[in-house]
Amino acid sequence: MKTVSDMSLRLLRAPRGSRPSRPPSCDPSDAFRPGTSGAAFRSAPYFRMMPTTTTAPAPPPTTASDAASAEVSRPSARDPWFDNAKFALVALVVVGHSLVLTPGTTAHGWVYTFLYSWHVPAFVLVTGYLSRSFAYTPKRLWTLVCTVAVPYVVFSELLVLFRNTVGHEGLSTSLLDPKWPMWYLTALFAWRLVTPLFKAMPLLVAVGVAVAVSLVGGIVAPHTFDLARAAGLLPFFVVGLKLRREHLALLHRSSVRFAGLFALAVIFVAAPSVRLVSTEYLYYRSTYAEIGDPVVAGLLIRLGVIALGLVGAFAFLSLVPASRTWMTRLGAASLVVYLFHGFVIKAWTYLGVPDWADAHPGVSLLLMPVAAVGLATLLAQPVLAVRLNALVDPVGWLKQRLWPSMPEEPLAQSPIRPVPVQQVPTSGLLR
């Protein structure tokens, strides 16, 4: 393994004119500052000349918070497990929305309840883990606005326009009332803003506060910006926020994978029992009174639903492949899939797919999930996703067109995120 001294000797022996000029801002210690993206410091000319193994050892952390900061800021190669998980989860979102087009038979309710008991919690949990580096800095806040708030405004208006023009649904254009899948962007914005607060809390305190907020959210349920969902699903975000790499590494053990498979099987078998309570509890959006339950019963049911969601989320994540698969290169286009699939699902509705499904309930229950996965796979293809990204990330798209030489700011990571446009034409892979 090369050392820093070896590298310095190579630079001294390099022919005149071939040595890289090191800008004053490219201090090697910048690579180890908390909040600094590995891609950001490697984009500087000086660091592009350095092998990835030639890094000076960082000082050992002295506190638990220092260790957490070091883990978040440590440069690392892209983990295929996260890309696999992100694509699998966003594909399940499309599957869940496609099931709305099928008739409400007993089998439909069984599958629907099984899926919704854990797939959104798993989605939010991964969001929390990938939000650990968020901080109250101008760059991070600006990135949050560009990658979450701007797509929310653009696609909220586009989706309402499409549904009113093509489907004649007569929806209002108020941004205070997120339409259909847009709730996730407002929730993500709120979760990111409270991230530093929960990062500063001890684990048990943070999870306890998040559960308390979720329970209280079932009493007051603020519907503006659909913040009731943000409050209801907050425990999953905080659990993900408090996870570390060594915790996720446990999911790759064979014994844990077997336990996860068994847990999902139990949840599937028990899904009819979950339907004894209103499926509205699985959406985390309504008050207990709106559902028709007293407060005490609502609190207990929500606690049970949260526990079920955590078990199902970890069980599913334990089954996600840790190595590169066909899903790996599609994971970076998860935001494209999330924002565009609603137009296709609604188009299927207007074309009469629900009528066809009513006439063929068994076949439709089998074919719609297959069609939904196919739709997600199509939208995530690099050749298509890079073209759709102009609407998904208009600020980043304009930046690349107007200032192509400017290094791109690190994106606020989540299961849904814009496609890094500048990398697709050269490698064909989404990062």
TrEMBL record:
Origin superkingdom: Bacteria
Region (Disordered), start-end ranges: 1-43
Pfam families: Acyl_transf_3
Domain Acyltransferase as annotated: residue spans: 80-378
Transmembrane regions listed in the UniProt entry: 87-104, 110-130, 142-162, 203-221, 255-275, 295-320, 332-351, 363-380
InterPro entries: Acyl_transf_3_dom (IPR002656), Nod_factor_acetyltransferase (IPR052734)
GO molecular function: acyltransferase activity, transferring groups other than amino-acyl groups
Sorted UniProt keywords: Membrane, Transmembrane, Transmembrane helix
Chain intervals with Low complexity compositional bias: 8-20
PANTHER family the UniProt entry points to: MEMBRANE-BOUND ACYLTRANSFERASE YKRP-RELATED
Protein's UniProt name: Acyltransferase 3 domain-containing protein
